[in-house]
Amino acid sequence: MKKGKIAGHSDSTIKRVPGRMPEELRTEGPVILAAAVTAALLAALLTLVLVKPEYVSKAGIYVSTEVAADTAQAAESGTAADRTASATTKTSESASDAKLVNNCLEITRGSDVLQVALASVTDAGIPYHTFVKHVTATAAKNAQVIYVRVSADDPYNAMDLCEAVAEEAARQYSSVARAGTVKIVSGADLPTSGSGVHAVRNGILAGLAVILAGFAAVFIFCLTDRKLRTDREIQEILGLDTFCMIPKNPDELRSRVPEDLDEPEEGSEGGAE
User: Fold this and answer.
1) Which of 64, 141, 171, 262 has CA 20 to 30 A from 273's CA?
2) pLDDT tens digit string along 37-55?
């Protein structure tokens, strides 16, 4: 024993952990909860201050091949034989339109379109390598419409850049992909609300992380603390009974000693006459 502390065996330390955890958690619980609330509020505040919202503007471009327009006109005015030929032509037309849409998607995401679009918006203030990551192009299901989406930290920048990309892409659809019909069916809209700022989520995650760290710290403390703290632990580990427990605080020990114990009783000194 060292410095008046009784140490238990290592194999018994693990057995004491479940019994000590509730007591330690009751003691340290308010501190852990206060730290968790503080961390949650701090994480939410930092998210609102440091993370800028992202605004997304969208535009739609309709594309089709020249065969589609010719076939539709022939189907309306032709004979039965013409309609049969038109039905056959529509099959090849669908394949051509699908190929055209894929080509247009590649053109939209290409550097030729994006460099021209970025250069046309002089006040964008966005480097090209950053701008490329904020532009997406997708095709609508069962429709020959390509949706262009551009995100930026300013709603007006997002709208202007999306409009520039849609106009330049539509121009190159006709010249490069040789599309028969190209039409911007929905212009770039002005986003009214931003996204990407998750202050509540980050606050909750930070609070949970602190709580888990607190539980882990209490568990490690209970696992590594080899001191015997209760008479039950002394009985289980050493097989000895305890007569009394000496308080750690000397003032507490003095408070338990009767005040008249140190004072001699009147008439206790002197011999009998």
Assistant:
1) 262
2) 999 999 999 988 888 888 9
